[in-house]
Give the backbone structure.
Amino acid sequence: MNCNDDHHNKKYTRRDFLTRTSIGMGALSLGGLLGPSPVLGKDLISQMIQTSGAGLPHFVPKAKRVIYLFQSGAPSQLDLFDHKPLLNKMNGKELPDSIMGTQRLTGMTAGQTSFPMAGSVFDFKQYGQSGAWVSELMPYTSKIVDELCFIKSMHTDAINHDPAVTFLQTGSQLPGRPSIGAWLSYGLGTDNKNLPEFVVLLTKDKYGQPLYSRLWGNGFLPSQHQGVQFRSGKDPVLYLDNPPGVTKESRSSQLQHLGELNKIQHQDVGDPEILSRMKQYEMAFRMQTSVPEVMDVSDEPDYIFDLYGKDSKTPGTFAANCLLARKLIEKDVKFVQLYHQGWDMHGDLPNQMKIQCKDTDQATAGLIQDLKQRGLLDDTLVIWGGEFGRTNYSQGLLTPESFGRDHHPRCFTVFMAGAGIKKGITIGATDEFGFNINERPVHIHDFQATLMHLLGINHEKLTFKFQGRRYRLTDVHGKVVNEILS
């Protein structure tokens, strides 16, 4: 008797039975998300799973979709939105010990014996009816401040980039947890079966802290919920096109037969990943038509390119990706995440900030204006921000022309706009040195809980059992920030 025969004839214990059936029940719970496939024919997948009855969303959502403009490397809030006149007045003087307290330092400034305060070299003014303070670096954003909600009291547990980004995207500093988009895909499913629920766009030719695919990964959730990266250029999704000589009809036939084999395997071993694999096969088949269509911006009028900026005509730029994000949410993609690197400024901050803001300011404002004029901002949530803030003291030598800022987890600024968000408000405040939070702290898990709330999800109830424990995005705490909800 060979190994396979022994496998099939094994007499399972009660523990084996419970383990196997628990996995099978996990597969059944995906039923509401894995709709029947036209590719595989005769509702093959629907024969294998049932509707979950999970009851999501938990309540009426205010947002249907999310565009998350993630600024990788951590923008300096002190040079963009958190205006601190005292820093300019005390420029070059030592940061008082009473203000620094027991703040943990990175390896880059731990050896410094002097911590001179660094005021911003950029002018700030108040804009709009809300009177929001904005730096001269953001002239386009300054024009739309009455659409925005600034949170100036964000804080995080991590002081270095990789754990901080991982924490923000997955709710844990340790790799292995599902990303925000994966949780939303798992909980809410899709409104467009021809495109992924979760799409990722990276600005090309930008460098900085490395970005890993696990940041948009599915973790321990079924693999169909991982983010799909769309690239600029000839092949937006790798390995999507048929090989030479393979027609659409032959590919469909191949998937039909492959589906029958997978059905037999699933009935035999009960592995829910088989269902996920089938779902991914059929999604790839449909994307052969849908992806080229959504990536084509040739029919956009000139005034739209003017709105987003001239870079919007260059594929792979932040501006072009903002325009694509709008097109994707028009097609009911639920979660679109843009990553823009280059904000990690330990030196030469004044010059580097100008470059980064030039790349992002107009396109960000243009996206929000474009969504508004199309009526899409009413049910689309837009988020802008990085993984932590920057220090109010200089890293290295402070000169009138150049200085750097180190990582600062104690406070930073993000802004939000759109569905369910109050317009033209600022919540939270830092002290006059811009070092500690004075009013309304907002933790990463609070931010995540609020995002899910806007999509109709109770963050405490969307869980997934893995290795004997029920996990959620917000781990073991987090409260909705009700003050920003409209």
